[in-house]
Amino acid sequence: MGELWPVPDVLAYLAGRWRTERSVRDLASGLKGRFEGVTSFDALDGGGLISRESGAFTWQGVTRPAERTLRYEPGSAPGRVDVRFADGRPFHGLDLTAGHHVADHPCAADLYRGEFTVRDPDRWRTVWRVGGPAKDLLLTTDYRRETPHT
Question: Which has the closest alpha carbon to 73: 43, 53, 52, 98?
Answer without folding.
Answer: 43
